[in-house]
Amino acid sequence: MTNHAAAADDPAAAAAPRRAPAGAAVLREDVTEAIRAAVLAELAAVGFSRMSIEGIARRAGVGKTAVYRRWKSKLHLVLDLIGAFAAEGLPVPATGSLYGDLRALLEVMSHVLRHPVASAVIPDLLVEAARNPEIAEAVRGAVLDGQRRLAEGIVAEAVARGELGAGVDPDHALDLAVGPLYWRVVVVGEAVTAGYLDSLARSAVAALRSSEA
């Protein structure tokens, strides 16, 4: 890095009136999307452990600096992609019942876990997370925070309806519902059917209610 501001992705931006703070780089959205597409292609071709910023930049047809302006490492780049397919930003299910809400959550998560990005990256990231606390924290933030928000909303609504007591832990609810799904999809690699999701939602409801006894 030099002492000068990084050049804008768009050369014409230098001549345009500046509204951003002085020295801020103009990040073109088409370049950002090209980089994201290149990451998906690299993941499919070489996997997370062998993926490099150089390979991503070459596939996207940009310089490495264009990647580093947006993400400080390949880990942060991949976590950004995973976050786009995780539950963060989705509305809390509002079916009117605890079973319905958990079933909706499982439907969403089954699609998330089967997405090529998740299936290609999450197992590798969990291995890396076991070795590196910083990576573990980043993975939790990208993958788990959105799911936890959904679980908190589902439990709060169930408590308000009188389906659950006030002491139910949303994290426990998330473990009961999504844990078996993760095992089946990511670890075992078994197919997920509508009947399986129905059964898993019923089992999670029963377990949550019995935990209050």
UniProtKB/TrEMBL annotation:
<dbReference type="InterPro" id="IPR009057">
    <property type="entry name" value="Homeodomain-like_sf"/>
</dbReference>
<dbReference type="GO" id="GO:0003700">
    <property type="term" value="F:DNA-binding transcription factor activity"/>
</dbReference>
<keyword id="KW-0804">Transcription</keyword>
<protein>
    <submittedName>
        <fullName>TetR family transcriptional regulator</fullName>
    </submittedName>
</protein>
<dbReference type="Pfam" id="PF16859">
    <property type="entry name" value="TetR_C_11"/>
</dbReference>
<dbReference type="Pfam" id="PF00440">
    <property type="entry name" value="TetR_N"/>
</dbReference>
<feature type="domain" description="HTH tetR-type">
    <location>
        <begin position="29"/>
        <end position="89"/>
    </location>
</feature>
<keyword id="KW-0805">Transcription regulation</keyword>
<dbReference type="InterPro" id="IPR011075">
    <property type="entry name" value="TetR_C"/>
</dbReference>
<dbReference type="InterPro" id="IPR050109">
    <property type="entry name" value="HTH-type_TetR-like_transc_reg"/>
</dbReference>
<dbReference type="InterPro" id="IPR001647">
    <property type="entry name" value="HTH_TetR"/>
</dbReference>
<dbReference type="InterPro" id="IPR036271">
    <property type="entry name" value="Tet_transcr_reg_TetR-rel_C_sf"/>
</dbReference>
<feature type="DNA-binding region" description="H-T-H motif">
    <location>
        <begin position="52"/>
        <end position="71"/>
    </location>
</feature>
<keyword id="KW-0238">DNA-binding</keyword>
<dbReference type="InterPro" id="IPR023772">
    <property type="entry name" value="DNA-bd_HTH_TetR-type_CS"/>
</dbReference>
<dbReference type="GO" id="GO:0000976">
    <property type="term" value="F:transcription cis-regulatory region binding"/>
</dbReference>
